[in-house]
Design goal:
heterotrimer, A alpha+beta (170), B alpha/beta (992), C mainly alpha (453), A: 170 residues, alpha+beta, 4-stranded antiparallel beta sheet, 5 helices, 4 strands, rod-shaped, B: 992 residues, alpha/beta, 7-stranded mixed beta sheet, 6-stranded mixed beta barrel, 30% helix
Chain lengths: 170, 992, 453
């Protein structure tokens, strides 16, 4: 987040928080929003683009499908044993394997994609974070230079924040 | 050869082996050398080390075969012993032997477990002052006996019927050391012999030879000729030959209890006990009235008179049979060109057996069967003389005797206690037993000189003229034992005998005569060697028998109602005990063999137990259900056995198999209690043991016994319309009979296959089982145990349904007691082409090989048991435990088959190791395996050749021809399209 | 706005949710220790049985020819079945936006994961040589021995392992934000550390929420077909074989329905005591039980229908083997199991049509246990009776009761219970963030348009 200082607004009410975001946008500052739960309105206000994760999952699924069939077929050919009258490679029987691996690989790709996009695991607390944000408060954190602090504080206070704090930036 | 090994070994030492020490193991190994000699001697104490130099004829892992003779009963079947590194692993029938021609019964196979019995006496023993047996040396033993022989008190030698050179030696020896020789066996044929002599002429005092293959109709009064009677392998073979033919022999079985033979008969006439004589007379009368009377007029007159009292409806009423059944038997006899009427077995051993035998002989004579189906040249001599034995007992009790020698026949067990042999034996100063087990009799002995088994001894056997069969040792004695013949030679004082250092020499001396009479060109040594390879010397004899004058008949045979004594039996409440010889334990000799104990009885399917067959009505009256313990008692003793309630035994009869209830003998025998059946039989004046005369009380004892029965689940003996074991009824084109089955789910239907059927480039192994020839004798089951190292699991585990048998002999009983429909079907892995068991295995532990075999890879098996679930024939057995064999039983294990560990699945492999061998040989000689070259153990063992194995790829092989037979069908194939490699041929039976 | 949202608005706040749920993580009580200890002892006992079985051989079990599968496979199917409702409630209902899932799904998922962990043991206990069980996995080896992918058992291996992996992932992902809340409230050093690590530094900023929710939706979408597939594959272990009573096309749907049926019942069995102990009445309300009961009624109906169909088909097929099998079930050796099943799964649940029963907690608790017993018996019926009577009468057999079987079966409950007990004390067993999600966000000006996005 750009700026040596950050101004942290702690909100109880959703509509106030949204106003806080507006403040950041108006002064086109970098900002970060924390919420105790997933609130669509809030997330949309921050960014309304769709997540890229779906593509990652799809890739995984396709790889899994191919890998599954490949495993069954290749091992079969590697150790060709006739059981009853069935063919060495009997595709119908292998559908299950292909299917299961589609899902398995899809899930594993999704997991990694998510970690990647959410930037976790992340050992450091994000700047301006406050434990209350995981409880019942919304937080709007706006980064700015020392000279603009008072101005931003002023604006946030007007949005109805319960409390406005100033913290060190990065 | 022999000499060579000796020079290598040099020293000569005397061994007291203690169990299977390393030394005695080497000793056994060393036998390799000895046994490679075509003729081998049991010079146990000379061959101790393996043949270090290596021996061209003895390649480790390559078996050598020895021809010999089975001594389990007196039939005298030829056998081959397969030995690896000097230990016998399996015994099979000798193809070139005239008696059994390749088959062998279950008891014959189990001879190995008698030979390797862990309970065998391992060295000479002497009873000390506290009555405890202490090991002594042979030297000491011999001296003790010699000392006892000096005084001039009376000495007796009691043996089972002996044969050939040993019999001769015993006779000479007895004479020379002053010993009286007595012979006894409980199930003797003395009455048959007497009757034969009476009716056919005094010079025919013996058991004639019967040819069931020539007879069109057989009327059989209780003779279990497919089980234990005279020569079962031979008889079942002839019987089957006819059954397989276009016009099978029609068998009427008249007996109060359904025997295995009865189950295979076309018509089972369940008569009241002891009424067989009446029925026989009725039939004779009927035949005479139908003009069958080629007898001297004088005799005819006599017969008319004595048969006057017989009226068929009275007979029918007394015997509780339908008149038409008796009439039809007589009618069929009258119409048949050749026929046979026989009587015997336990159920005939009433107080009127002689009369019955006479009447049967007369009928045969009337029908002109002598020379047709009855061969008087091939007489089997009857040696057992119970009359003499009784007098012996009496004299011992009057302290006339001081010394008694007994062989391994265990008379104390088989002579009913009421004959007081038990008391007698205690009165003797010295009892010397040559038995190989510490059985009831031997327990009473002061000295035990263990005799070698017949697998370790020399000997010969002449069942009847023209058959001179040899017994030769196939390995050195497992324990420190000496063959009976050698002992006698050691104990003799006679110079004439002394000149024979060993029994082998004595034997050869006897065979000089055989050689002479044979009149062959080659010199004796070659003749001798050839005979050993062949298993004996066999020469066909021309018939010279002339029927003797019949004068004697009237004198000896009492052909009148007076001789018939079943008035007692007529009272409803009165129960008679029928002790019968089973294919499991025979007369008791096979009781200590786990294979025999674990073998399910063909009729009741009970194993590891003795039981009482009780009629349903009788049981209901006493509130007895199958499995309840019952007390069967009379003045002389009592039995406590579980009940088996069935319709197939008469209301007045309680049938109990002989042979179990040993107090001593061995761990396996004594694990089966119940009590000794012989002891309930009262003594009488008869000159033979009248087994079927004990009247008993039946009580429901406390509690039940979980009997090991492989088919005891409700309805599991009813196949209904599942078409598993099928029967085609001759002369009955009744619609809805099995004829139709063939159309709807026909034998050769070729359904659309979803998959491309597997190509079999070289071979496609398959089997055909002809149910018309299968008697259910279960020889195949035991052979399979022996060949494939199948563990016997014991009674408890078997009651949990965990027996390991790869070959299940299924018995179905779909009929009623009136109209029997018993079917036997030997079921092994069907080696399906569309095997349901294969695709479900997650690790390919079972798969299909290019020979069309369903192969099981033990080492790959994880034990998911999915295959067993999905096997529609339920042929897969799982190793729930790991089973250990007490030494030296483990010496019998077949090195070609691995022993399975706990947790893996196993099943019939069509003896894949034998197939492999055959293929290798063929490959070496650059040819394909010839038809019949490879035979699985079951196929080899089958006395009736009901099982045929071969290559289905080869259109000319026996098996592929039979697979296309009109009677051929495959189990469940029409339901499930499993494409089994095993085809069955419908059973053939006559409807009344 | 859906009705269930109104259930909260006004009477529960974000803060209250946080407090109530996190209070569950406070210092363990004596009772908790007792419970944990009992569970551990139970499964140790079961484990002992297994060891002795490995030493002496599988003969220790009651299994025998021809009942080669029995109590262990029954337990396997039972536990896999239990596992199902977890994913159903968390994933499927998530896709359907059925908000009643929110307070109960975390428990359901925990149950899923631990149930699969239990189920997974049974195939290994079952096999003859467990130490070679890994041969069922495609482990590369120098001899190039591979498993047989044509075998339904191998499908099972893949299905169950996939199911376990995916549901565990789903479970852990769901936990992350809640652990973050726990972290922020944590006092003890240990917990600070534990949650600090396990929350992966989650802060709940808008970007995270955006991707998190998107990913969560995809997980749900991936997990949903698993709910159907896993038990279908399990059912193919039977349906793919040719044993009368197993070889039936109806099996997959029938098994899936049965699984959900038993799973929901198990959730009820677990939630009721939890709710009581931790006073969650305000979060888990009658409304949730009512909804679950409706699910039970539905699945019970499906299962009953399947039973009837089986009998009808057996009769209609005119196949003597099928017919005998389905005559044998109600009237044969194992008839008690059959009638027990019929009572527990078909008759007893019918009472739930009566609304007061659906909200009577004590009654529900009993009912849920009855259903669980019923479903165990169902599997018993399918496996034992079908094997006991198939094609060849001479090979028919029965089952020998064995204490080892009982010991291992009970031990499994101890194993499952231990994980559950540990979980509820160390991690939030109610989804804080998602419960908050269905609470109306507090606004200063009620007329603002924030909620109409």
């Amino acid at each position: 987040m750009k700026g040596q200082k950050v101004v942290v607004g702690v909100f109880t009410y959703l509509d106030d928080a949204l106003k806080g975001i507006q403040v950041a946008k108006d002064n086109d500052k970098d900002y970060q929003v924390y919420a105790p739960t997933y609130v669509p309105a809030l997330v949309h206000a921050v960014d309304s683009k769709r997540s890229k994760i779906a593509m990652i999952s799809l890739t995984g699924g396709i790889c899994g499908l191919i890998a599954g069939f490949a495993l069954a077929i290749l091992t079969g050919l590697d150790w060709p044993m006739r059981v009853s009258a069935k063919n060495i490679v009997s595709i119908p029987a292998y559908i299950v394997v292909g299917y299961e691996w589609t899902i398995l690989w899809g899930a594993l790709f999704t997991l990694n994609g998510m970690l990647l996009l959410c930037r976790i695991p992340n050992p450091f607390r994000k700047v301006g974070y406050d434990p209350r944000f995981s409880d019942d408060k919304y937080g709007v954190v706006i980064g700015c230079e020392p000279d603009q602090v008072d101005q931003i504080k002023e604006k946030l206070a007007h949005t109805g924040a319960d409390e406005v704090m100033v913290k060190e930036g990065l | 050869m022999q000499k060579k090994s000796l020079t290598i070994l040099g020293q000569n030492e005397n061994i007291e082996s203690e169990g299977l020490s390393r030394r005695s193991f080497l000793k056994v190994l060393g036998a390799a050398t000895a046994t490679t000699a075509v003729a081998c001697a049991d010079k146990a104490d000379q061959i101790i080390y393996p043949n270090v130099k290596g021996d061209a004829t003895q390649i480790p892992g390559v078996p050598s075969w020895y021809s010999s003779t089975c001594t389990q009963c007196d039939a005298g079947c030829g056998v081959n012993y397969k030995t690896y590194e000097g230990r016998v692993t399996i015994v099979e029938g000798n193809k070139s032997h005239p008696i059994n021609k390749g088959g062998l019964c279950a008891i014959g196979h189990s001879a190995l477990q008698d030979h390797y019995d862990p309970d065998r006496v391992r060295q000479p023993l002497e009873k000390d002052s506290n009555g405890v047996f202490q090991p002594i040396t042979w030297k000491a033993a011999y001296t003790k006996i010699k000392q006892a022989m000096v005084d001039n008190s009376k000495r007796a030698f009691l043996t089972k019927p002996l044969n050939g050179s040993l019999e001769k030696l015993v006779a000479e020896w007895s004479k020379d050391v002053g010993v009286e020789h007595y012979t006894y066996e409980p199930l003797d044929y003395s009455q048959l012999a007497k009757a034969t002599a009476a009716v056919y002429g005094a010079n025919y005092n013996g058991v004639p030879h019967y040819d069931f293959s020539k007879a069109e109709v057989v009327v059989n009064f209780g003779a279990d000729f497919l089980e234990t009677w005279i020569s079962p392998c031979e008889f079942s073979r002839d019987w089957a030959k006819s059954r397989k033919s276009k016009k099978p022999v029609r068998v009427f079985q008249v007996e109060p209890r359904l025997s295995l033979t009865g189950a295979n008969a076309d018509h089972h006439l369940k008569c009241k006990p002891g009424t067989e004589l009446l029925i026989a007379k009725a039939i004779l009368k009927e035949l005479l009235s139908r003009g069958k009377n080629n007898l001297p007029a004088s005799l005819l007159g006599e017969l008319e008179v004595s048969l006057a009292g017989i009226s068929i409806d009275v007979v029918a009423k007394l015997s509780n049979l339908k008149i038409e059944k008796i009439v039809s038997a007589a009618q069929r006899l009258a119409e048949a060109k050749t026929s046979l009427v026989i009587a015997g077995g336990a159920s005939a051993k009433t107080n009127n057996e002689y009369d019955l035998q006479v009447v049967c002989a007369l009928i045969n004579r009337v029908l002109g069967n002598v020379g047709q189906t009855i061969n008087l040249d091939r007489l089997r001599a009857v040696k057992s003389d119970f009359q003499k034995v009784k007098s012996l007992i009496a004299e011992i009790n009057d302290n006339k005797y001081s010394v008694l020698f007994v062989d391994g026949s265990n008379p104390l067990f088989t002579i009913p206690s009421d004959y007081k042999f038990g008391l007698a034996i205690k009165k003797l100063d010295l009892v010397v037993s040559f038995a190989s087990h510490l059985d009831e009799t031997t327990k009473e002995a002061n000295l035990v000189l263990p005799a070698s088994s017949s697998i370790e001894s020399w000997g010969d056997h002449q069942p009847y003229v023209g058959v001179n069969s040899l017994v030769q040792p196939a390995m050195t004695p497992v324990f420190d034992t000496v063959s009976l013949g050698d002992m006698l030679l050691k104990l003799t004082t006679n110079e004439a005998l002394k000149k024979f250092p060993e029994f082998q020499d004595y034997l050869k001396a006897q065979w000089q005569q055989v050689h002479a009479s044979a009149g062959v060109a080659e010199n004796f040594e070659t003749f001798w060697k050839k005979s050993l390879e062949r298993g004996g010397y066999f020469a066909e004899q021309k018939s010279v028998a002339q029927l003797g004058a019949l004068g004697a008949v009237i004198v000896t045979a009492k052909l009148d109602m007076a001789s018939f004594d079943s008035t007692k039996i007529q009272q409803k409440s009165d129960l008679v005990l029928l002790p019968y010889a089973s294919v499991k334990t025979f007369d008791g000799r096979a009781a200590n063999r786990p294979w025999m104990q674990e073998l399910p009885d063909p009729i009741t399917k009970i194993a590891w137990d003795t039981w009482a067959e009780i009629n349903t009505k009788t049981a209901e009256a006493k509130k007895i259900k199958t499995g309840d313990l019952v007390k069967i008692s009379n003045y002389y003793g009592e039995l406590n056995v579980p009940a088996y309630v069935t319709d197939h035994v008469d209301e007045n009869v309680i049938a109990v198999p002989l042979g179990n209830g040993h107090s001593d003998f061995g761990r396996y025998a004594s694990s089966v209690g119940g009590g000794n059946v012989y002891n309930l039989i009262p003594s009488d004046k008869a000159d033979h043991l009248q087994l079927f005369t004990a009247h008993v009380e039946l009580k429901r004892a406390l509690g039940k016994r979980k009997v090991a029965n492989t088919q005891d689940v409700k309805d599991s003996d009813k196949q209904g319309d599942r078409g598993i074991a099928r029967t085609t009824y001759i002369e009955t084109k009744v619609p809805g009979e099995h004829k139709e089955n063939h159309e709807e789910h026909g034998a050769h239907h070729e359904p659309e296959q979803m998959y491309i059927q597997r190509e079999h480039p070289l071979y496609q192994w398959g089997m055909v089982v002809d149910l018309a020839a299968c008697t259910g004798c279960s020889a195949c089951v035991t052979a399979c145990y022996a060949e494939n190292n199948i563990p016997t699991v014991g009674r408890k585990i078997m009651t949990e349904g965990r027996e390991m048998s790869w070959l299940r002999l299924e018995r179905y009983d779909d009929g009623t007691s009136e109209d029997l429909q018993i079917s036997f079907i030997p079921a092994m892995c069907q080696h399906c082409q569309n095997a349901p068991c294969e695709p479900v295995c997650p690790v390919y532990a079972t798969y299909h090989n290019e020979d069309g075999l369903n192969v099981m890879v033990y080492n790959r098996c994880v034990g998911t048991r999915y295959c067993a679930n999905n096997c529609v024939y339920k042929q897969r057995r799982f190793n729930w435990y790991e089973y250990e064999l007490p030494e030296p039983l483990d010496m019998q294990l077949n090195p070609e088959v691995m022993k399975r560990v706990a947790g893996v699945m196993e099943k019939c492999s069509f003896c894949v190791h034998r197939i492999k061998d055959a293929k290798d040989h063929a490959k070496d000689e650059g040819r394909l395996v010839a038809d019949g070259e490879v035979q699985p153990a079951c196929v080899k063992s089958c006395p009736t050749e009901a099982l045929v194995f071969g290559d289905l790829n080869d259109p000319n092989s026996r098996v592929s021809k039979l697979a296309k037979h009109e009677r051929a069908y495959k189990i469940l194939d029409h339901h499930l399209n499993t494409q089994p490699s095993v085809s069955y041929l419908d059973n053939l039976k006559y409807k009344a | 706005m859906s009705t269930e949202v109104t259930k909260y608005s006004g009477d529960v706040t974000y803060h209250e949710v946080n407090e109530t749920v996190l209070s569950m993580l406070e210092k363990p009580t004596f009772g908790w220790y007792v419970l944990l200890l009992t569970c551990i002892c139970t499964w140790v006992m079961g484990f002992g049985c297994w060891i002795s079985m490995m030493i002496y051989g599988l003969g220790m079990t009651g299994l025998s020819h021809p009942i080669m599968w029995g109590v262990y496979i029954t337990n396997f199917v039972f536990w896999v079945g239990i596992a199902h409702s977890g994913t159903l409630i968390s994933a499927v209902l998530y896709l359907f936006r059925a908000k009643f899932r929110q307070p109960i799904y975390r428990l359901a998922e925990a149950m899923t994961v631990f149930a699969v962990m239990t189920a997974g043991l049974f195939p290994i206990i079952h096999v003859g040589r467990p130490w070679y069980a890994y041969w069922l996995m495609p482990v590369p080896n120098e001899r190039a021995l591979w498993p047989n992918f044509k075998s339904p058992l191998l499908w099972d291996v893949f299905a169950v392992s996939t199911y376990f992996t995916v549901s565990t992932t789903f479970f852990i992902v769901g936990l992350i934000p809640d652990i973050a809340s726990a972290r922020d409230k944590a006092t003890s050093k240990f917990r600070k550390l534990l949650y600090g690590i396990t929350s992966l530094g989650w802060t709940g900023n808008a970007k995270q929420y955006k991707n998190y929710v998107a990913a969560y939706l995809i997980f749900a979408a991936l997990a949903t077909p698993l709910v159907v597939s896993v038990h279908s594959v399990v059912s193919w272990d039977f349906a793919m074989s040719i044993i009368p009573g197993w070889h039936a096309t109806i099996f997959p749907p029938y098994f899936v329905a049965g699984a959900i049926f038993s799973g929901v019942a198990m959730v009820i069995t677990l939630v009721i005591p939890l709710r009581k102990v931790f006073k969650l009445e305000r979060i888990i309300t009658d409304f949730h039980f009512d909804a679950m009961c409706k699910l039970i009624l539905l699945t019970s109906g499906v299962v009953t229908y399947a039973y009837v169909t089986e009998f009808y088909v057996a009769w209609f097929s005119n196949n003597m083997f099928e017919r005998y099998q389905f005559w044998f079930r109600p009237f044969g050796e194992f008839k008690l199991a059959f009638w027990g099943m019929a009572f527990c799964n078909c008759m007893a649940p019918l009472t739930l049509w009566y609304k007061p029963f659906r909200t009577n907690i004590a009654y529900l608790f009993v009912m849920s246990i009855i259903i669980n017993i019923g479903m165990w018996l169902e599997r018993f019926n399918i496996i034992f009776t079908s094997l006991a009577r198939d094609f060849i009468p001479a090979a028919w057999g029965g089952y020998n009761f064995s204490w080892i079987d009982v010991g291992i079966t009970i031990g499994a409950f101890g194993w499952f219970g231990m994980w559950m007990t540990l979980f509820i004390k160390f991690f939030p067993s109610i989804a804080i963030v998602e419960v908050k999600e269905v609470i109306e966000a507090p606004v200063r000006d009620p007329h603002s348009s924030v909620h109409h996005h």
